[in-house]
C-alpha cells in the first residue's frame, strides 16, 4: 500500500498491479490529478465537523457537471455548460481537477476546460455542506477559499433556508399568503430560521378534499427541469391538486415566450425575486386545512350568507351618505391641489407620470433597486437622469410634497442632487441626477471584472462619504440620520467622486431630539447594535460608515457566504485581527498599490474600528472623522481587552506628506 505524492492511497498485488485506489472512491473532495468518472458522485458532508453525508451531491450528467439535491427525482441547482462542438448524445466521461483548471472530457477527441484562478500553492476542491463547490489553497499556513465554482446567487442554493423556507437577500422566512391570517407553516426552530419550515398540518393523501394551494407571488424555485408544457395557470394548479405526489407548482408567465408550469415533489428553499416587466413567477404550495378549519369555514359561510341580506339594507344607506359626502368634498379637490403647491416656494420641477414614463421608455432599463423602490435610467432632453419609483409609499400628497421640499433644499457636492418629482394618484417618483459609474459596490467586490481602485481613489471616496454624512448630521436645519449607509447607496461620477444617495428617504430628527424611536430598518451587515434597543441616533450612520470603510480597504463584503465558515463576517475578523495586531492580513490583495501603502491602510482600519464600537457614545462624530482623514486630528482605536482608548496619530508611521495621501485631494 502506497500513498502517492498526489494524495492517492493505492493498494498493489504481488505483480505490482493496482488492486484498489482511493481516487476511485471520492467522498466530498477532489485532489489535483483526481478524476470524477461517469457514475461517481461527490457527496457533501452534513457540516464542517460532521462528515456524514447530506442530501447534496455533484455528478456527471449528459449536459455537463451538475449539482443536485436528493429527492425523487433528484433536483438540479447548478450545471456547467457542455463542451462546445459535441454532438447531442455524446455524454461526458470524466472530469479531472488540476491546479488552475477543471477539465471535462467527452471522448478522446473532445474536452473542455473550466479555468480556475492560477496559484503556485497546493489546491483541492470540495463540495461544502452548504452546496457551494469551493477551491481551497494553502496560504499563510492555513487553507483559504480561492474560488467558488458555482457563480450563482446565494439564494439559489436548495438548502440555504431549509425546506419551504423563502430566501430574500440572505434572510430566511416561512411562507405566508398575502392578506391571510392563517399560518400554514412554522419554523423548525424559531432561533435558527435557516433550518427551514414545516407545514402546520401534514399533508395526507386520504384527505385530498381538504388540500388547498397557498399563493406566493414574486417567488421562484431553483429547479425548472420538471416542466409540464402546454398548461395554462388554472390547469397547472388543478393538475397538482389532483395528484398527491405534487407538493407545489411554479407557474412562470412570459408575454414574449411560452408559459411554464413546473412541478415539485419535494420543496426545498424558495427564492424571492423582483418583478420584471412582461415576466412573472408565482409558486403555489399545497397545504392541508385541518378539519376544524374546514368546519369553521363552512359555518362562517352559512353565517355570512344569512347576514348578507341584512347588510344590503345598511350598505344602501351608507352608499347614499358617502355619495353626498364625496360630491361635497370634490368641490374643493382642485383647490387643495393648487394649495399644496402654493405652500412650498422654490419647489423642484414637478413631472407628470406620462412624462416620466416617456423619459424612461416605460421604465424599461432598471439601474438597481433598494429598500425604497427601483431606480430606472431615463433621458430628459440631452441629459441622462435616474428615476426612483417608490414602492409601498403611503404618504398623503401634502406630506410627500413637504418631504420633497426638504430634500430639494439640501444641496451638497457629496449628496445626489434631486431634479424633480411626481405625485400623481398613488404614484410617488423622485428624479435624480444620473451617476455614470453606478454604485460603489460594483467597484469594490470585483463582480464586473473591474480593475482594482488605487489607494488614492479609495481615500477620496471615503472622504466624500464622510463629508456627505457630516452635512446631513451637523449642517442641515434639521438633523438627518440616513439609516441605510451601504455601498449600494454610494454613487460615483465619471471621476470617481462619491455622492450619498437615498438620504431624503430617511428619518428626520429635530435638533432638540437626542434620539428617535423607530422600527428596525436598514440592511443586515450594516446595522449598529443599538437597533436591538430602538434607541437610535445619527451614530448608527457612523457604525455603517465603519463597515463600508472596511469593505473598501479589504475589497470584500462584510457578510460573504462564499467564504469559509469562520471568515463569513468581516467585522468579526477585524476585531480579532485588531486585537492581535494583524490588520495587515485584511488589506485588499487584488491591488499592489494597496500593499505599497499598507501603513496608511492600517491607519484607515483603525479609524474604522473607532467607528465600529458597540457603545454609540464612543464613536466619533462625522466632523471628527473628516479631521482624522485630513490629518489634522489623531485617530483613536478601541482596545477590546482593556476597554480603553489608545491614541495613535496618523503621522506616526507616514509623516505629514503621507497624511495628505490618506485624505486624498482636499
Automatic annotation (TrEMBL):
Instruction: Reply yes or no: does the keyword Cytoplasm apply.
Output: no
Q: What is its EC number?
A: 2.7.11.1
User: Apple domain location, by residue?
Assistant: 205-288
Alphabetical keyword list: ATP-binding, Disulfide bond, EGF-like domain, Glycoprotein, Kinase, Lectin, Membrane, Nucleotide-binding, Phosphoprotein, Receptor, Serine/threonine-protein kinase, Signal, Transferase, Transmembrane, Transmembrane helix
Q: Does the keyword Transmembrane helix apply?
A: yes
Q: Membrane topology type, per the record?
A: Single-pass type I membrane protein
The record, for InterPro entries, names: Bulb-type_lectin_dom, Bulb-type_lectin_dom_sf, G-type_lectin_kinases/EP1-like, Kinase-like_dom_sf, Pan_app, Prot_kinase_dom, Protein_kinase_ATP_BS, S_locus_glycoprot_dom
| TM region(s), chain numbering | 303-326
Q: One Pfam family of this protein, by short name? A: Pkinase
Please state what class of enzyme this protein is. Answer: transferase
GO CC annotations, alphabetized:
membrane
Q: Protein kinase domain spans which residues?
A: 361-638
Q: Which Gene3D superfamilies does the annotation name?
A: Phosphorylase Kinase, domain 1 (3.30.200.20), Transferase(Phosphotransferase) domain 1 (1.10.510.10)
The main location is membrane
Localization:
Membrane
Residues engaged in binding ATP: 388
Q: Which PANTHER family match?
A: G-TYPE LECTIN S-RECEPTOR-LIKE SERINE/THREONINE-PROTEIN KINASE SD2-5 (PTHR47976), RECEPTOR-LIKE SERINE_THREONINE-PROTEIN KINASE (PTHR47976:SF30)
Record-given protein name = non-specific serine/threonine protein kinase
Per the UniProt entry, what species is this protein from, by scientific name? Answer: Triticum urartu
Q: What is the lineage of its organism?
A: Eukaryota, Viridiplantae, Streptophyta, Embryophyta, Tracheophyta
Name of the gene: LOC125529037
